[in-house]
Write a structure and sequence with these properties.
Number of strands: 0
Number of domains: 1
Largest sheet: none
Distance between the termini: 36 Å
Structural class: mainly alpha
Order of helices and strands: HHHHHHH
Number of helices: 7
Length: 148
């Protein structure tokens, strides 16, 4: 489902998840309130993943839109809506004391970290996939090249 929306989205979501695991494992030992540390972090990670999905969906919708002015207006409006949703998540978390706001921010920053590391993650995953036998498309291409 995610790959149909955007080729890089599954790797971006995996990167956000891996970032969350690293931050969880390394930081929980230093936190005084481990429950709020963890809940804030994973609320942030979920928010980052929702933002990544929303961005990919908006890009796909605007590419299909033929009118450049309408596409620009749509991207701007949806971007403002996305950031308003992030402010709402922070506000709800603060009001109901659901988690640590600093770790929530670290979780949301997982989107940025994952975006920067996505090319590296793509290389690693493609090497691991090739070692496992490669995809059927690669195999078919190789067979066509070998067979005259």
């Amino acid at each position: 489902m995610f790959r149909r929306l955007n080729q890089a989205l599954p790797e971006l979501l995996l990167g956000i998840l891996l970032y969350g695991i690293v931050i969880q494992v390394t930081g929980v030992w230093f936190a005084q309130d481990r429950l709020r540390y963890s809940s804030g972090l994973w609320i942030g990670i979920a928010t980052a993943m929702a933002m990544a999905y929303h961005i990919a969906r908006i890009i796909a919708e605007t590419i299909d839109c033929m009118d450049p002015h309408k596409a620009k207006v749509q991207i701007t409006a949806k971007g403002i809506l996305r950031y308003a949703a992030v402010v709402a998540v922070f506000s709800i978390t603060m009001y109901f004391d659901l988690g640590n706001l600093v770790t929530l921010f670290l979780g949301v920053m997982g989107l940025k970290i994952s975006a920067y590391l996505q090319p590296v993650l793509h290389k690693v995953l493609s090497k691991v996939t090739r070692k496992g036998g490669g995809s059927s498309d690669e195999t078919n291409t190789m067979e066509r090249e070998v067979k005259p």
